[in-house]
Amino acid sequence: MNPKFAAVKNHFTNWREWELNPIVIKELRQAVRSWAVTGMLLLFLTVLFITSLVFLVGQSFNVHENTELGGTMFQAFAVILAGASILFIPLYIGVRVGAERVESNTDLLYVSTLSPGRIIRGKLLCGAYMALLFFSACMPFMAFTNLLRGVDLPSVFFILFFLFLVVCAANQIAIFLACLPLSRPFKVLLALAGFFFSFWIIGGMIAMTFQMMRSGVGAMMADRNFWIAIGTALGAGVALVGLFYVLSVALISPPSANRARQPRRYLTLVWLLGGALTIIWIFQVAQPELILVWTYATFFLMVFALLVTISNADELSPRVRRDIPAGGLRRLLAFPFFNGAAGGLVWVAGLTGLTFLLSELILTHARDWFSASFSLSSTDQEKIWLYNSTLIAYAFAYALTALFIHRQFMPRRQPKIAGLLIVLLAGLWAIVPGIVLFFLNKLSWKSVESLQLGNMFNIFSLQEDGQRIYHLYFATGWLVLVLALNAPWFLRQWRNFQPLPARVPPPLAETTPVP
Amino acid sequence: MKVQVKNLRKTFGKTVAVDNISFAFDSGHIFGFVGPNGAGKTTTMRIISTIEDPTGGDVLLNGISVVEEPELARRVVGYVPDTLPAHADITVHEYLDFYARAYGLRGKKRTQAIEAIEEFTNVTGIREKHLKALSKGMKQRVSLGRALVYDPDVLVLDEPAAGLDPRARVELRELLVLLAERKKAILISSHILTELTEICNGVVIIERGKILETGTIEDVLKKSAPRRTVAIRLLEDNRHQNPQLLRELLQTPFVENARDVANEIHFELTGDESAACDILGELIAKKFKIIEFRQTKANLEDIFMNVTKGGVQ
Fold first, then answer.
1. In chain B, what are the domains?
2. Distance between CA B135 and CA B125 in Å, rounded?
3. What's the rounded Cα separation, in Å, for the pair B172 and B166?
4. How large is the average pLDDT for residues B96-115?
5. Bridge-partner residues for B296, per DSSP?
6. Contact list, A255 vs chain B (CB under 8 Å)
7. ipTM of the predicted structure?
8. A112 and B102 in contact by Cβ < 8 A?
């Protein structure tokens, strides 16, 4: 029997011995005793109680029956619950993870045999339990509104369920931000950004709640499109949470491990699923333009992936090398899923190239397949092609230039300098000539509307459409040049991508208590 | 269990905290790790405990690399840091319970392990107390208990005696000897060097990230302090003879650096023990009323003062 399968079988047959994640137990023990949590919960209950009183007492002065009182109260409760749980719980979880990631803190739970995945799941589960605590405190107030009319029970439960998922997603994002290897000031800045971003999420949630209240979830449930929209939102949300989960696990994994594998595998899977779903949708609703949603989502993710990939070190640890498959084809297929900038570049280029080709293929044949419903003109199509190809060429040209500068001129510096260089190069080339020309042209920004080769943002501000093609020529030429310059480095990386013989670790004595 | 530190190097920017150091110790050994503040002791210990990654080199715990397989290494190493557990809102028992769970101890086995450790470290009476309410000594015990709860083969203790009262220090020493008898490999750093001399089999002296001396205590003492110091005390009424005794000694063979130290005459003996006997016989024959004639053995503190310069990076 396969050892992995045997381990899974053994896990399920011994279900009586299952135990809760140790981190959940510890965190919950601490949370129920913490003044922050109990104080927040008490404050939350007090606000809910006072709000109920204000509504009920206010209604008692009204001689006419208010058939919308329940709905109005529910909306108020939803705002309070969303505010309390989206602002407080992710902040609490994030701060705790961040404090444990501080290097000087040796009392780390990371120095244990708990796997990185188990640590992140523990933190996430703890956040979910805390959210359940807040939600269960609010639930009687919300269910009560049903008795006052103006809201149906399906709406109550549906909105609560959706809000709960949003809180869990916010928790995962907070955990990811806390895991980032940044200094304390940067983390504080991120926490502040996250705090303000939370208001945006709360705003969106409240808007959605109000919309659902107006329409009534019970009434919408019969509509197929309602479930499709909910399914799509849930799918996208789960994919995003999953991405932050694998990224967090990778961030707290030991540097000697193949940290790149899981995020790249996950993103490839999501990319494939997303592509398949988009194509199904295109044929369902006969709208080939939908492919652009998938295309631009992929490009957006790949720009970040490119930044991270370029910041990877070249050397593979012996532990990683032991995992490299020995066979030629298997080694080739494994290359993009291993640590290292070279493999990462192949992976990003592969996904970006395939997305671009598939997108072009669908848009080119769209007129034949969906003549009636295809709304894009051929000029628009050409524009999309030109924008996409130029931006991709520029992105890779910048990345490879940064890589070349780092590997050639500062190889002893940390590889993340290369990632920083891309941002610096692209930023400086976009800003400096613009500012110089601003002063030369008597304080006029007119120059940004004329051709500035190398400035990838200039494509969007160019006045003359015909000049955009020069950007493509320039970016392609530049890309070919840096490809040639980096070719020896790339070949060296491929040659170094060789497996080491697997080492059998010495057996360890079973853990036994000290007598 | 063999612990091998091989060409370990750690830099923080331009500061070289640990500079290519190598040493090894074994099961049943207590190895002292001494050096001035900022010598690189804590950094080395953090690397051995998988908390920090080295810039170069490696540490092998029975062949398991802390760099390559930190997850495996963590199963065999227990670390007592110099900072004490400061978790708020958690009791001693819950704290130990968490670490036992984190290291995969389950059900009855976990309960037994925690009870045994609480008894061993003498924290049973305070198991329901909150960590933040504990004294430094008690926290130190809890910290040791945490490192021992999963029965690791290697123990790394960073300044475990700092801030402990004399009784707690004696208890800690006894505890460490007991653990060494149970075949644990122990690396301990401390500034209380006299205590280390009593319990350690071996020692590493480090300064500015470099090893100055390493080996068994006896070897290091022999190597770094080959000369014996002899102290002579005359009967109280005859102390006025001290200058005369000093002059006499300066003319005696195998005697160097004779000096008056707090009404005692100290000198360095370059010869062996029979030379000491001859000197004593000669002095008695010359009617010096000697009440005390003793050889003072160099200890770790003397060697530490001799070999280190107190440099900080």
1. 2-223 (3.40.50.300), 227-297 (3.30.70.980)
2. 14
3. 10
4. 89
5. B229
6. 53
7. 0.74
8. yes
